[in-house]
Amino acid sequence: MSKVWDKYPQVSKELESVKNIIKENIKTSEKYFQDSVIPLVDNGGKMLRAAFLLLSAKFGKYDKKKMHNLAAIIEILHLATLIHDDIIDNSKLRRGCESIQSKYGKEYAVYAGDILFCQCFSMLSQDDYTMDNMRSISKAVKKICMGEIKQNYFRYTRKVDLKKYIRIVSGKTAALFVLSFSIGAKEAECDENTVKLLGRIGYNIGMAFQVVDDLLDYDGETKKLGKSAQSDLKQGYYTLPIILALQEDKSGELSNILDNSNFNEDEVKSIVDLVKKYNGLEKARKIAERYTQRAFNGIEQLQDCESKDILKQIVKKLINRCY
Amino acid sequence: MSKVWDKYPQVSKELESVKNIIKENIKTSEKYFQDSVIPLVDNGGKMLRAAFLLLSAKFGKYDKKKMHNLAAIIEILHLATLIHDDIIDNSKLRRGCESIQSKYGKEYAVYAGDILFCQCFSMLSQDDYTMDNMRSISKAVKKICMGEIKQNYFRYTRKVDLKKYIRIVSGKTAALFVLSFSIGAKEAECDENTVKLLGRIGYNIGMAFQVVDDLLDYDGETKKLGKSAQSDLKQGYYTLPIILALQEDKSGELSNILDNSNFNEDEVKSIVDLVKKYNGLEKARKIAERYTQRAFNGIEQLQDCESKDILKQIVKKLINRCY
Questions:
Q1: Across the interface, which of B111, B146, B152 has its CB nearest the CB of A149?
Q2: How far apart are CA B298 and CA B292, in angstroms?
Q3: Which controlled-vocabulary keywords does the entry list (chains A, B) (predicted)?
Q4: How close is the nearest chain A Cα to the Cα of B57, in Å?
């Protein structure tokens, strides 16, 4: 289990059980499908979405088996979107291993993602989850895909401004965090206000998480990230640090380079330097802090319990992470 | 509406309503998503799966609104798989128009397909369909994807024998036909035997349909097909006509060419000629007829009604189609 959870043995133990459910469900499929997907589960990342679902559900009537299943569904959903993202981004690495699209080909990766999507809905239909949650899940996935489509549409153009960036991130990242925070709570019969509050906390954490991710694309290390550094930039995704740096780029030296595409290594280096020079990283970090603060304010309003304390500590870790 | 239904104004009218439901549901999404998908719906093909669902449901308690919705869901599901298939096959044409992957790029097509998958589950959760059907649908889509993965795995290899071919087609094509024949009937509360019988009919029609499709890849015309002729062959998919021809290719002249990949036009022509010379088309046609006969036998066991007559006539048309 990721070391994020080292200090919380209870969460860590429950996530281990979620991971086993994921693996069991993938094992119902054919051998070579299992072989391609299981390594990704084993190197399972931080399992943030599953953890947030479990922690939120604890504000209501916590049914362990049901919640572990639901957390597994959310993680499989996330896995499906990652596999499809890697096709688009041509990513070689995922969670420190060779990505499915790179190892098995893009063709395979399209269907592997599709199978995982179906697996989620198949698992949802096997337990007595509310139709309402089924609706929320399918809507969230639509939002994620729309966010990805928008992001892709704006590749290599400087037309992405702050407003468009926020819309993209609201879809591609925050939607799944909102879902993780709210569907567990809903199944645990939390009252409507608590579900809404948790959803808002999820939104702000999701936004902060993505901004930090975008920052790491500029100053993170490949080894720690488990994926290539500057990969977004090289793919032509102009994220928050660039958008904010451009606001101070009066001479046009940054925008001139960005008007090209398929940057060479020198250009990548220049862009990173200019983004730093024009305070892109610094300003983006402030925005991440603002979202984090909003998340904290939300968490403060939750009833006192162990989950609340864990949420606070984890959010603090996320904003300061380097992986 | 496709001319297949010209003789059946009632079916045609109902399919028109199904088409409107599909369009309305797609219109809930963003403008450019609509613009990319609606043309595919308008040039909507034969809508066979929807029609089979409606015709089967008529053997039970027919609730028009519910069945039209369910038929729309099945067609959207089919659309999603087509969009993803076109990515894999690099197809330029679909239903006589430029394919989404060709017009908007593969990246876009991945997410467009994903959105349509989610749309299905979202629609399913809005009506009071049985969880049992939700399960059947997600299982069927998994089967379809597994079939596609297998097909892709065997590209440009002569390892596909008759048994493997049947397994591939059972997944990639027949699974959705089985679903179309059975879920409408199940929702219409047909008794278990009738649902099973309809499922078997669907399976045999699906198998016959795919074999005829594979035959058309050899002797169909691009204009009539709405997609390129010999496209399967050029992509390295060795379908039934080749598999059967190879059984008579004692001299090895066909297998020698097949051991290459990326055939030039001359090689494509030689393969087509050799497949004909070694009776590949003739024998495949016999197999299609055998599946059709099984479908007829099944249909005969259904209770007498208008749907039964229409099914018989449509199946006869399908086996003799050239598009």
A1: B111
A2: 10
A3: Magnesium, Metal-binding, Transferase
A4: 22
Provide the strand spans (E) within chain A.
93-94, 97-98
ipTM (interface predicted TM): 0.85
Q: Which amino acid is at B38?
A: I
The distance of B242 to chain A (nearest Cα, Å) reads 23
| Residues on chain B touching A30 (C-beta within 8 angstroms) | 146
Q: What is the pLDDT of residue A77?
A: 94
> Do B122 and A135 lie within an 8 Å CB cutoff?
yes
Residues of B in contact with A146 (CB under 8 A): 29-30, 33, 111, 115
| Longest Cα separation, chain B | 60
Tell me which chain B residues have a C-beta less than 8 angstroms from the C-beta of A129.
Answer: none
A–B: how many Cβ contacts below 8 A?
A: 124
* pLDDT tens for each residue of A152-192: 888 888 888 999 999 999 998 999 999 999 999 999 999 99
Neighbours of B117 (CB within 10 A): 28
Q: How would you classify residue B45: left for phi > 0, otherwise alpha for psi between -120 and 50, otherwise beta?
A: left
Report how far residue B91's alpha carbon sits from residue B99's, in angstroms, rounded to the nearest whole number. Answer: 7
Mean pLDDT by runs of 10 across the 323 residues of chain A is: 85 96 86 88 88 97 95 95 87 81 87 91 82 84 86 82 92 94 95 97 96 88 60 87 94 88 86 94 95 96 96 89 62
Mean pLDDT over each residue of chain A, to the nearest integer:
89
Candidate CATH numbers 3.40.50.12710, 1.10.8.60, 1.10.3300.10, 1.10.600.10; the one for domain B3-319 = 1.10.600.10
